[in-house]
Each structure stands twice: as C-alpha cells, then as structure tokens.
Design goal:
This protein has 375 residues and is mostly helical. It has two domains: 243 residues, no CATH class; 99 residues, abc type-2 transporter like fold (3-Layer(aba) Sandwich), CATH 3.40.1710.10. 65% of the residues lie in helices and 4% in strands. The chain has 15 helices and four strands. It has a four-stranded mixed sheet, covered by helices on one side. α4 links the parallel β1 and β2. The relative contact order is 0.11.
Length: 375
C-alpha cells in the first residue's frame, strides 16, 4: 500500500511540475478564479437598477404626483413626464423601459369609490429587468394608493397586506448569487479541462511511452492526475471564495468554509474523472475541446446554478441527477448561503461520492484500455 501511495505522490509531483511549466494554463487558472468571477458578479445583474421610467400624467393631482415621487433611485431613474402621443415613438426608440399612464380624474374616481386603472407599458426586451420592475411598480403604486386613502380616512380597497421578508439575501443583490455560482461553475470547467489536458499532454509530448516502462499502474496514473489538479483547483477556489467573493465583493459567507472545501474535493474528484473519461475518446486537444464544450454547457446551465431545477421538465431533472453538478450546487447553496451543517447536506455529499466512484470506475476501464493499446 505504501509503495502505491509513493508512486501516486511522485506522479503527482510530476503533474504539478508539468502544470508549472505551462504558462497558458497557469494564466487560465488565475484569470478564472479572479477577474472572471468579479466581472460576471458585477456585470450580470438580475435586479432592477436605474431603470428608465416615463409618466403620462393626465390627472395632475396630488396622488399622481405622490406616485411619481415614490419612484426613487437606485431602482429607477428620475421619472420623465411625456405626452401620450410620445409613448410609442419613445418606446420604439428604447428610451424607456417603463411608461406609466395615469388617466384623467384618477384621484377623484378613487375618492368616489370607483376602481380606476393605471396602465404600465413595459419594454420586455429587457426580460428580467422588465418582469421584476413591473412587480416593483405595481407594489409601489398600490402602497401609495393605500396610504393616500388611509390618510383621508377612506377605506383602502386592498383586501390583504402582504409583507415580504427576503432571507439569506435581504437586499436581493445579484452579485451575492452569481459570484458563488461562478466559483462552482469554474471548478467544473477547470476540473474537466485540466484533467483531460493532462492525459492529452502525455500523448502529444510522447511521454506516455515513458510511463508504460515505469513500474506504475494505470490506476496510479489516474489518481495522480486527479489529485494534483484537484489540489490546485480547490486551493484556487478557496482563495477566490475568501478574497474575491467575501472580501472584494462583500458577499457574506454564512456557513463553514472547511465543510465547503470538503465537498469541493469530492466534487472535483467526480468531474476530474469525467474529464479523463472524455479524454480517452479523443486523440488531440482540439478533439477534446470539441467534446468537452457541450458537456460543460449542459452541466453548468442545468445544474441549478443559473435557473432553479424546479423550472425544468421532470424527466430532465431526473437525468441531471446522474451528474454531480446539481448535487454540488445544492450542497454549496445550503452551506454558503444558509449555514447548513453535515446533518443537512450529507445526502448531497453521499450522492457526489457515489457518482464520483462510478465515473472513476468507468474512466479507469477506458484508461487501462488506452494504456494497453500503446504496448
């Protein structure tokens, strides 16, 4: 046993030296866990931020002005008053995301007990911002109308008062979500690319023949590649989480960092085995890249890090459970956002172990076959 462990250790040192001698991969690792995470977290926003709003005020009442004054930054820009004839040209030109139309006699009809309506025109080409912004505008208008009626000692027409409390991300800041999910996606990308590239590099450099004459087994070679690349990736991901996400972006980490690292090690093992498995079906880095890209796209987009798993068809949810990414996303969200411990996340960790062992077993069979083909 000690003999095999020493072989894995020495082969792992060789992998780290090979990685050190490849400046392109080193730059890729640094970029992926620094600038790439910061750029995505600060650039891709899902919440409403300084949306352009115009108001067609045909009532000119105190209530209509009150509604206008309630549209504040940073959700919305200062509202611009326009005429009704300017609505279509302005929206066609993309000048405003929202145009609010307040009809004549709006305040008077409301006081008289009638039910007047306000129309909100939405430019839905900015889909996420339009959907969230329309909800915000509806809530703001209803709140202002209810407050106005209560101040005049009139009965508000709202049957209930809904109070929302956002947990784990009370300010609904998108960077709190995207930054952590980007770390997870980058672990997936680099684990597959580096482990697969390590095998392809042996072929392209002709060093695989050297390995064949050494007293090492294919299993030891696989483990050394997975462990060496995993050490680099998990270390880089942990530093990125502590420095870029928590310090630079100011995202609070609620749970245990050591527990997250433990889960990341298990996850990296499973996706690195998948990377080696993909590499056994290719003969060059170009072929490996063409095969890895669709796998990475599917794993990242359908893992639950971009859209909730519940929004997918049931059959697709079941298929994705055979991959490690949904389990790791669920694990990471529970640990980092909600401060969950082992009693809560152990099913996801167990699933990662089972899937990782299955991937590793299949990859080992394929890798042994590839190695014997060189004899």
């Amino acid at each position: 046993m000690r003999y095999h462990l020493m072989n894995i250790f020495r082969l792992g040192i060789k992998e780290l030296r090979s990685l050190k001698a490849d400046p392109v991969l080193l730059v890729l690792i640094v970029y992926t866990f620094t600038f790439a995470i910061y750029a995505v977290a600060t650039g891709a926003r899902f919440e409403v931020d300084h949306a352009a709003v115009a108001i067609v005020d045909e009532d000119r009442s105190g209530l209509s002005r009150r509604i206008q004054d309630a549209l504040l930054e940073p959700l919305f820009k200062r509202p611009v008053e326009i005429a009704s004839s300017e609505i279509d040209p302005a929206m066609n030109a993309g000048q405003y995301v929202f145009v609010i139309e307040i009809p004549p006699r709006f305040e008077q009809d409301l006081i008289s007990g009638r039910t007047p309506s306000i129309q909100i025109n939405v430019d839905a080409t900015a889909m996420t911002q339009a959907g969230n912004g329309a909800v915000y505008l509806n809530s703001i208008i209803l709140q202002e109308v209810a407050t106005y009626l209560q101040q005049r000692q009139l009965e508000a027409s709202l049957p209930i008062n809904v109070v929302l409390h956002a947990k784990f991300n009370p300010n609904l800041k998108s960077e709190w979500f995207t930054s952590v999910m980007q770390v997870i996606n980058n672990i997936t990308i680099l684990s597959i690319i580096l482990s697969g590239a390590a095998l392809i590099r042996e072929r392209e450099h002709g060093t695989i023949e050297h390995l064949l004459v050494m007293p090492v087994t294919p299993l030891e070679i696989m483990l050394s590649k997975i462990l060496a690349n995993g050490l680099v990736i998990v270390t880089a991901a942990s530093l990125s989480l502590l420095v870029i996400v928590e310090r630079l972006l100011g995202v609070p980490i609620a749970g245990s960092i050591p527990l997250f690292i433990a889960g990341a090690i298990i996850y990296q093992f499973s996706v690195a085995a998948l990377g080696i498995l993909l590499a056994t079906y290719t003969n060059s880095m170009a072929q490996f890249g063409l095969l890895a890209i669709p796998v990475l796209v599917v794993m990242n987009l359908l893992s639950g890090s971009t859209t909730p798993m519940e929004s997918m068809p049931v059959w697709l949810q079941n298929v994705m459970q055979l991959t490690p990414s949904p389990h790791f996303v669920s694990f990471a969200q529970a640990v980092l956002y909600r401060g969950a411990g082992v009693p809560i996340v152990w099913p996801d960790m167990a699933a990662l172990v089972i899937i990782g062992v299955a991937y590793f077993a299949v990859a080992a069979l394929r890798f042994r076959r590839v190695m014997t083909s060189f004899h």
